[in-house]
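TL;DR need structure tokens for one chain.
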Amino acid sequence: MSGKGTLAAALAACLLLAASAWAAPSEDRILALDQYTTDKGRRLATAHGRALRALNAEIYHCMPWVEVQKSSIGFFRPKHIASDSRYLSVRIYVEQDPSPAFAALRVEERASAMFSRYVGALLRRMNEDAALAGDPALDGYTVILEWLKQMPRAQGERPVHETIAVFVDKALALEYLGRRRSITDVAAHAKVRGFDGEAGLGDLRLAAWDDNFVSTYKVANYQVEAGVTCR
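>> reply
TL;DR here they are.
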């Protein structure tokens, strides 16, 4: 089996095979307007509120095995950028059980597998609204992925999560969506920061490949609500 195949098999083994959903997504997943600290952020959120709600709803209905974190969809300023650059951002928690095979991989390999599986799919969903994608005030995109790395090993211990924060500037994202760049190029040029629990791992260099999991995976006993189209 190839290296990519080994990573995919290890990742597939730990994904939860069932999910449940309420009838509609909670709008508290979208950052409230009064939480923005600059006029630029507020203007973007006001102009594109409908697009934010559509993004929230599509992830909710079409990716039922992930959880969008509260107040995590919005126009955030990446902390490593000094100017008031505003990136359309989303943070998701992937509901999966820890797998010994997946945990045995190097952190860069686990991060590469998660990047390949989710970043391209989320960038496409974040750009479905043409007015938002074309707004010159939008500077880029942030995708934050979190997953369970390790269950508590002793009483009183907390589970350990891993997280990657992926920052993609707008020009690179649009070239990828226009099929002028590959997801491998996105991984090579994006800024990716890793975290083991709350401990920062610094910048990660990842390999990435095309992965159609999000568009093909079906959760057992889950039916998409009538009238919802998942792409």
